[in-house]
């Protein structure tokens, strides 16, 4: 077992830009919030392509006034989601009713069914404050399972768990049932912490017969069929796990975010501010973590500026009309937005980029993921030679100089819009809660790997919240978005531990199966 406690140091939100490799040439084009590692130059870009770049800039740029308008509405929508009437943001109570104090102990299993992988962990929260040991195995979540049959999915998961337990515990027949926290990162209604009624699939999943049902019995039946010695003690969302795991090592952490395949946040509310739970008569000051499911923000498109490309993304997704905000930010969609633009500029515009070339590879939906955009944005060379190679090797497309400039600018626009929109959500929760300063724990591939996402997000927050320019560039922002602790591993274990503790102390609120907590 390896000691992983406090393994990850908190990275600063404002990451450093690599210096440009060559001094930039004159830059004649109006460049809004570029945050780019390379100054670029549109001097040689022909007029028609420049026109396209300008059109895209208009479509994708979100200025300060718009950011503020979006944030305003966001604050109101958070409130609405907590009310009896409800709104498009679900604001799901999670029955996670306290922050950890760092002294939680015990050994727990955690299962993470994210958007891309399946991960099984065993976490031991040790006697040392805020420390833990973890062992883990990752399993690929086969693409077919995401749109296949529910039984196959649960059976695959049960098999992975069985394999993990056999590897680490040997003979399963003599084992007592191990407590497990199940990170199920989709919108779910939880009347209890050990229940999760799937509201709708997101992130491209589309498995019939699950929406509207409690997934816990389905999961447990698969375990029983295989004889897997596990009892589920908590079903959690990755954002709630991120919030709790981050608060375990940093008490300033108030919000947990995921910017990955999907996009969402959780924070701690007090029960007195949740009108839709009023009938339960919980003490008003009692904390309750809320899984916002903010991906659904503005599904009705009142403030979000939708481009023609966003319209196509939505229309062709398995759940049109859902997850409007997520579809502009999450990693699942960024590469696809880019691809749609490229195909459009090849087919439909006077510009005809990649003229005379067939583009069968580029025509394949969802063939470019967000790492493709990351690579474009990371190209350090003035002539974008790495981008040219990428287009050649991945897509069999030869892009000329002006086209490469267009490609780079398009990636910047998509990445910048995503980061700035994400700031609206963080700002909205902070405003709603009156947090002038706090830490926000964030995880996910876009947050961790997409170039400049952190700095662009921080710049968005600064504009929305009217922070003065920093005198010392290294100084912290009042609200800092930092790399989080492992939410779906450590966070799930902590939530299982906290739930066990409160049940033992007699707080039985939101517990469906008390027998599993003995
Ligand atoms: C899901 C959320 C999840 C987020 C990040 C969204 O699609 O609805 O439950 O937290 O993705 O994984």
From TrEMBL:
Record field: catalytic activity: a D-hexose + ATP = a D-hexose 6-phosphate + ADP + H(+); D-fructose + ATP = D-fructose 6-phosphate + ADP + H(+)
Keyword ATP-binding: yes
Keywords from the named record: ATP-binding, Glycolysis, Kinase, Nucleotide-binding, Transferase
Record pathway: Carbohydrate metabolism; hexose metabolism; Carbohydrate degradation; glycolysis; D-glyceraldehyde 3-phosphate and glycerone phosphate from D-glucose: step 1/4
Family to which this protein belongs: Belongs to the hexokinase family.
Protein's UniProt keywords contain Kinase: yes
GO biological process: glucose metabolic process; glycolytic process; intracellular glucose homeostasis; mannose metabolic process
Organism: Lasiosphaeris hirsuta
A GO CC annotation given for this chain: cytosol
Pfam families in the record: Hexokinase_1, Hexokinase_2
Name assigned to this protein: Phosphotransferase
Annotated EC: 2.7.1.-
All residue ranges annotated as the Hexokinase N-terminal domain in the record: 53-248
GO MF, any single term: D-glucose binding
Region (Disordered), start-end ranges: 15-41
InterPro entries membership: ATPase_NBD (IPR043129), Hexokinase (IPR001312), Hexokinase_BS (IPR019807), Hexokinase_C (IPR022673), Hexokinase_N (IPR022672)
PANTHER family: HEXOKINASE (PTHR19443), HEXOKINASE TYPE 1-RELATED (PTHR19443:SF16)
Domain Hexokinase C-terminal: 254-498
